Amino acid sequence: MRSHLLALGATLVASVLATPSSTYVRHEKRTSLPSGWRTDGKLPGHEILPMRVALSQSNLDKAEEYLMEVSHPDSPKFGQHWSTEEVAKAFAPKQESVNAVTEWLKSSGIAPERISRSQSLGWLQFDATVAEAEDLLKTKYYLHRHTDTGKPHVACNDYHIPKHLSRHVDFITPTVHFDAKIPQVDVPRRPIEVRYLEGRPPKTTLSTAAVGVPVQTKAAVQVITNPKNSYHPKKGADVDIHRLSDELRMCNVHITPNCLRALYRFPPNSRANRKNSYGIVEYTPQAYLQGDLDLFFANFSTNQVQRTPTTDLIDGAVVQNIVESFAYNGESDLDLEYAMALVNPQPVTLYQVGDLVEGASFNTFLDAIDGSYCTAGGGDDPTQDPPYPDPLPGGYTGPKNCGGFAATKVISTSYGYNEADLTAAYERRQCNEYMKLGLQGTTIIYSSGDNGVAGNLRQCISTNSTGNGTTYNDGTSGKFNPGFPSTCPYVTSVGATQVVPGASVTAPEEACETVIFSGGGFSNVFPLPSYQATAVKSFFANFPPPYTAAQFNNTQKTRGFPDISANGANYVVAVDGVFTLVYGTSASAPVVGSIITLINQVRLDRGKSSVGFINPTLYANPGILNDITLGGNQGCGTPGFTAVKGWDPVTGLGTPNFPKMLSKFLSLP
Ligand SMILES: *[C@@H]1O[C@H](CO)[C@@H](O)[C@H](O)[C@H]1NC(C)=O
Ligand SMILES: *[C@@H]1O[C@H](CO)[C@@H](O)[C@H](O)[C@H]1NC(C)=O
Ligand SMILES: *[C@@H]1O[C@H](CO)[C@@H](O)[C@H](O)[C@H]1NC(C)=O
Ligand SMILES: *[C@@H]1O[C@H](CO)[C@@H](O)[C@H](O)[C@H]1NC(C)=O
């Protein structure tokens, strides 16, 4: 009886679906190919596609409420973080969604025995011929080829699903999405730049080589092996270490750990807490050199010589030493030298992610620290996230690392995409994972970008709209190009400041305008979070920016970034055996991460929890930060936004004032 009723239901659904495409709605579309790709014709109908349906998770409408409950300073439940199991249970897709999608597939001729589910039902998976998939999604599949590497990629331009399923499906793959592995964007990107110490560095660096460079290019293997690769940051002259003797008087020309302690008023640390932890994320082929750490420690943190980070190798990761140059070692050396020195003797965890062949995406990392993402909740996208085991020659052949690594209490990452590189559905899904980590008491820190209101490679969004969707230009005009994950409201985005040239370390800082400009602006995807509403409203009321919707989403209803900032200019870093100066929000992020780690240590010493998601406390207590009111973040042929009194999309709420932050966080439950 029961099974008959079910069969009847399926038949009814089928007959509805068989009626014209009016019951179908477009679910996602992409109107142009990412630069660097060309279409290589239709895909033959008999080819097999590994289809995956990302089911909508439940209770996401309550996510902000849940997170505020454990992170808002006025909440009596502040610090009562959730367990991994509680998180997985709260957000697992509803059975109703699983059923609805399964019925649709069945009625469209995908027999039930062909469909499998991921452990927690987050994904439905099946193999289908191109012809079947085209019929199912009312679309056409094309083979695309990368113009430089010849790498093939299967995609359609849009796809449709029955209207009643829209709320049950996040997205389906493979469809419109394109490759977005971190090294493809970020090794080419100049995360940090080096300039000569002699004389004043130029106000801006023109990276003409970057103009016209495809947004998404170059597999990691190309970056590693291709000597013609033109992306490497420029390496400056060495710093004469003897000139650093009067360290604290020189902070306007070189930043050292003691300069940062003076700027943000935090002492050298003296102890570790076993419950405390601090993670720095690096994406292969970026790698640190122990010799560089030792050189740095010998000069700036003598008892740490030969100290290594606790290294978690994720998905066949290697700390590669095949290629040694600023482009490959600069980011890792910078992050680890400063993070390790500032929290010493607290150990620092290095999450080294991805092998030399596939590279990795942020989702690869999330998989490794949060099993619910790869098995239970389900967030990976096989067309955007590298597959492990790695199918390419020489790649990692072991199993995908899933949930095997603990999340540290603070996780700092100095890499990023343009928000426009990825689809909104993909970004929302990843952003929700940061929310889940916040619920579990982890502080997620991302650098805000180094190109002001422009995006990676200093590109802006072309306003030459021909209906072809997002394309980037040379950065001299166009729409502002905000960065992701910084626009995710569940991360803490860190911008950059500098000591005013010629000023002392005790004088107020200004927005960084040396070599780099602090990334900042407003999301085109994420709505304004409640914790930020007052700050953003008062910014628009008191200092309305002189731009229109042609430059940015000026509805005042979208997430603004960054949240906080820290010095990002003139860092003395040991790279490839010499000291050089380094610039970027890449430097600012691990400094803020270190300060939060020191605050966690005192809370943990007193039997309290880690601070977790800090934004609600920062925005409710702007006085615990040093407001920055000078400078701007130029880009896209404009002066960008201006640092003003209160929050601004250049330096956020300002730089850390450690004693005030510590006292506030210690006053919370
Ligand atoms: C700093 O590093 C240089 C270069 O290795 C070394 O010669 C010098 O002794 C170091 N200074 C200190 C104070 O350790
Ligand atoms: C639009 O495209 C034309 C032709 O490619 C170019 O000359 C012009 O500068 C572009 N304008 C903008 C605002 O990007
Ligand atoms: C838009 O797409 C059409 C068709 O693919 C192409 O012919 C045209 O050159 C594209 N225009 C731009 C500005 O990319
Ligand atoms: C601006 O953001 C709002 C709120 O997220 C959104 O509804 C609107 O569509 C966006 N406008 C544009 C032009 O992107």
From TrEMBL:
Biological source species:
Stereocaulon virgatum
Q: What is this protein called?
A: tripeptidyl-peptidase II
Stretches that traverse the bilayer:
none
- EC numbers: 3.4.14.10
Q: Where is the signal peptide?
A: 1-18
- Top-level class of the enzyme under EC nomenclature: hydrolase
List, from the UniProt record, the residues annotated as the active site of this protein.
331 (charge relay system), 335 (charge relay system), 586 (charge relay system)
Lineage of this protein's species? Eukaryota, Fungi, Dikarya, Ascomycota, Pezizomycotina
Location of the protein in the cell: Secreted, Extracellular space
One Pfam family name is Pro-kuma_activ
Q: How is the cofactor bound?
A: Binds 1 Ca(2+) ion per subunit.
